[in-house]
Design goal:
This protein is of the alpha+beta class and 730 residues long. 19% of the residues lie in helices and 30% in strands. The protein contains 13 helices and 38 strands. Bound molecules: alpha-D-galactopyranose.
Amino acid sequence: MSITVTEKERFFSLKTANSEYQMQADSYGVLKHLWYGKIVHQNMGYLLEYPDVGFAGNLYEAGNQRTYSLNTMPLEYAGAGVGDFRICAASAVHADGSRALDLRYERYTIRKGKYNIPGLPAVYASDNEAETLEITLRDTASSLSVTLRYGVLPELDIITRSVLFQNNGTTPIVLQKAASLCLDLPQGGSWDWIHFHGRHAMERLTERTALMHGIQESSSTRGTSSHQQNPSVILCEPDCTENSGACIGAFLLYSGSFQTQIEVDQLRQTRLVMGLHPDLFQWTLQPNDTFATPEAVLSYSSNGLAQLSHHFHQVIREHICRGTYQLAERPILINSWEAAYFDFDDQKLLKIAKEAAAIGVDMLVLDDGWFGKRDDDCSGLGDWFVNEKKLNGSLCHLVEQVRAMGLKFGIWFEPEMVSEDSDLYRAHPEWSIQIPGRKPTRSRYQLLLDLSRSDVQDYLYERISAILKEADISYIKWDMNRSICDWYTTLLPADQQGELPHRYILGLYALLERLTTDFPEVLFEGCSGGGGRFDAGMLYYCPQIWCSDNTDAINRLSIQYGSSFFYPISTVGSHVSVCPNHQTGRVTPFWTRGDVALAGSFGYEMDLNKISDEEKEMVKEQVAAMHTYYDLTHEGLYYRLTGLKKQDFMAWEFVAKDQSRALLTIVKTDAEGNMLPVHTKVCGLAENKLYRCSLDGEIRSGRTWNCAGLTLHQVLKEYESIRVEFTEVE
Ligand code: GLA
């Protein structure tokens, strides 16, 4: 039993293999958070002793007890406006205009298996793998009930959370904030937080700083999870490293605007609140209506960040990603974008395909420009009809020729967009998101379709499925190339316009659900100008996401490093491209570009006819390496061997689940005269096994390699890389 309840004390404990989470409803029905950390086997309420700090709101029922204050105690899910002045988890406006939410314990249920959330992506698990706890709280003065749902996956050290609001009264209630997760850490002490920021073509850069008093935030108001911040966060002890120390991580299964806030209060307590961004959220609950928040996923590790990442990699790969390609080997693809941009015809594509087939690539992906009037990015979006003039024939004919060469065929869509210069826009301007009376904001010359509309979803479903039926297509790159603003929909009344941002995402998920259900053999790869919507919500529909438009191997090291804290390698679309690199102008060795791309779902982004014979040989080697190491890279445990501190190399390692072998990659990022040898850590080998190192054939115990690491005797020049294998010997 991973969930235990002591009824009399209204005490709840959720246990996973290595963590425990505790809550307790006190005599006033206030649900306190007691603990999230190592398994302790005792009620941690003893930690909660609070002084009278003054200017605290005291609970009326507590009489003269000045120390009983919602403002100082760790709450499981903080309401609003009743004396807790920290960030709230939820707020609502009642029929009389008041905004208070005073949540008290009402009941609980436990059941086998994991709850799901209709219409939203969520962790899935069999009845033997998970248990669900639901705790219902009720507002003291309204008929709003708030059910906190916990999914416990003990073997994975994962706890999921979602909240269900229900209006049991007779008048509407308007939700203004509905976070998925509130986590109070009462233990005192200080924490660092790690979050992932960036910009287009430089996503998920890692930042770790000590928490300060007050509120710190990582969020997106762009209608997407965004390049700029990622819906994932880690709190860790200041001395926490990859392999030691306590840390807690959380991510959201959501692809729209989000907000992660962390507040350190006057008592040095820490509160983490994560969920829908309240600036872009409002929801009217009519009598009997319910509203379910997106899901947040939590994990704890007492052994540092690597183990925390392993928990997240496993839950995303095995309990969020779905479909034929969830675990199946991903095709090595060659994408036409950097090879041709908009400038192609059938012959050019066939030439690339021919070369790719000869070298062992599995699939040709035709990127932007194959439909409507689309020779640059100013027009055509929405007109998902094949441009047969450009392809000199039908798509089916092109695909048949590519298939005859032994390659599969994939194609690019940007379904959520419309160009003003398109037949679709001319026919249905009302389908685009814009505010009547205002000029719409353009971005990359394009507007958005209102995906909350079922007629828009139906049009896109019809067009995409028609293309999928017209030709033998095995893959879709689902792109999304702008942020969303000008929020307005013709379908909702004025006082419900605030629902559109969330309804847009619900519409997107509904469309993706239909398509992935009806075309189960098609691999969907997410994309948003690279990694602008790299989140677990999209991964529920698309098991891989184009990680960044930046294919520069050296920049990719930081981008893939940041991505690796939460997202498994199998989700990270990563391609070898030409040099000088199109984004940075940097020249790196072909070999290095391959080594970096091998730490992802591998492919190419170039015209193979334009590379040298020597490079073609390297492509063959890389393709072979991708197959040889596939079980390691996609199924093994991933270790970051270098960190945020500036060093002159980056290194990472994959260890097979059975610890029989490992692959370690080093890339030299900086060089100077009279170079010192690279010395790297080695992680995760079995202490009592012997391993041969591929560099010099030396055999040492896993314990030795793990303790002492590896020194490279050969000198790596700037941007050179090397792969080192460790193989178990009997
Ligand atoms: C985005 C994607 C690219 C490419 C272009 C096509 O920028 O991230 O990979 O598909 O769109 O317009």
